[in-house]
Amino acid sequence: MTMGTRIYLARLAGLPVFDPNGDRVGRVRDAVVRLRTTNRPPQIVGLVAEMALRRRIFLPIGRVTSMDAEAVVLSTGTLNLRRFEKRPNELLILEDLLDRRVTVVPEHGEGPVHHGIVVDVGMDLNRNTEWIVTRIAVRELTGRLARRGHVYQAEYDRVRGLVGPTDTQGTANLMAVLDQMRPADMANALQHLPDARRNEVAAALDDRRLADVLEELPEHDQVEILVALERERAADVLERMDPDDAADLLAELPHTEQTVLLDLMEPEEAAPVRQLMSYQAGTAGSVMTSEPVILTPDATVAEALARIRNAELSPVVAAQVFVARAPMATPTGKYLGVVHFQRLLREPPAAIVGGLVDSGIEPLRTETGLAEITRRMATYDLVAMPVVDSTYRLLGAVTVDDVLDHLLPRDWREHDAHVDEQVIP
User: Fold this and answer.
1) Where is the CBS domain positioned along the sequence (predicted)?
2) How many CB atoms lie within 10 A of CB 397?
């Protein structure tokens, strides 16, 4: 193996996994430890990798030819693509061991006992070419501020509390690993955590990050996480979600709980959510976003490009600007048309968007059904369509991802294609 004799496993999280030809297989999400019935240290038996469609699979450690700070490389052969499931005698490093509160006993029984938090786990290659857990990196507890404590390494056999109940497990170091992920990847990681652990991590995220992650989760997971929060915190998170996503989530709750959370939200944040929830399910009004990019006709191309350059906008929302008379907040003044991103790139920065609008696409009405929306978007190759009321005021826009979310099966985020094996050349 082209690798060192000691590797720290938390540092592998997120690394790309390649086959011998340099093609990406997936990304490392965890490492699997097999417990022993004797006093021997646990054995690292493989890695957990995430592939396309968010499937997590098991990679036997014997298939790994190299791993360093840049990537993990596999040998040739057949790769089992069945979804990974942890066995009773196995633990996952990041999920089960990171952030555990442990006790480190003195070597040879001499000296004080120390208490700390697990921040990493080191594995070594022994004479039998087995990877075994040999070192535990521990951050010493210093009063209540564990994050400021000294980090040191202890031999595995000196650490107590690695195996057992998880009520002594925190979230800080796992969050440091998860924080490197995109919201969709973090959402997938949360789905694989035990419920209590998942709720602890979710509660530790800031409101904006948690809102982004919730939008990527299946509805039943969204509900379970939201109801586990204090109601005031839940209302704060809902305020930071896109109004259409917040409305969809609230629709999964009992009516009394909907009312309580909406009342706790700031009135200006709750108003668009209430409006979206008033529309009949399966219509443009119920699936649209009420916050597309809107400009008045006297805005310049430079202003339009500056608006859609905002990193917080999703690609489909940033693909066009809608032009309407003031006010620009929905419901706007009279809707005039749309200017697509490519047209903006072809025009001089000082050009006025009012002279560039495409008014040839008939807007949707709030009562337009999903089948009609899908047909019209496919006919005109659009990624978003405006929604107007009877007086032609712009109310919002339906985007292609809104349509897909409502056309796909409710459990599509958890769906795996039926593939069992893949041969790596």
Assistant:
1) 357-417
2) 27
- Give the dihedral of Cα atoms 281, 284, 286, 288; nearest 10 deg: 150
In the chain, pLDDT over 70 holds for what percent of residues? 91
Residue 160 has pLDDT above 70, yes or no: yes
Please state, in angstroms and rounded to a whole number, the distance separating the CA atoms of residues 237 and 148: 29
- Tell me, what's the pLDDT at 1? 42
Class of domain 1-170: mainly beta
CATH (residue range 181-278)? 1.25.60.10
Domain boundaries, the chain: 1-170, 181-278, 294-407
CATH code for residues 294-407: 3.10.580.10
Report phi then psi at 13, rounded to 5: -60, 130
Q: Which amino acid is at 299?
A: A
Distance of CA 392 to the CA centre of its chain: 37
How large is the average pLDDT for residues 173-195?
82
Please state, in angstroms and as integers, the Cα–Cα distance from residue 34 to each residue in 22, 26, 274, 390, following that order: 30, 23, 51, 65
Reading phi first (left if > 0) and then psi (alpha if -120 to 50, else beta), residue 108 is in left
Please report the pLDDT score of residue 417 as a whole number: 47
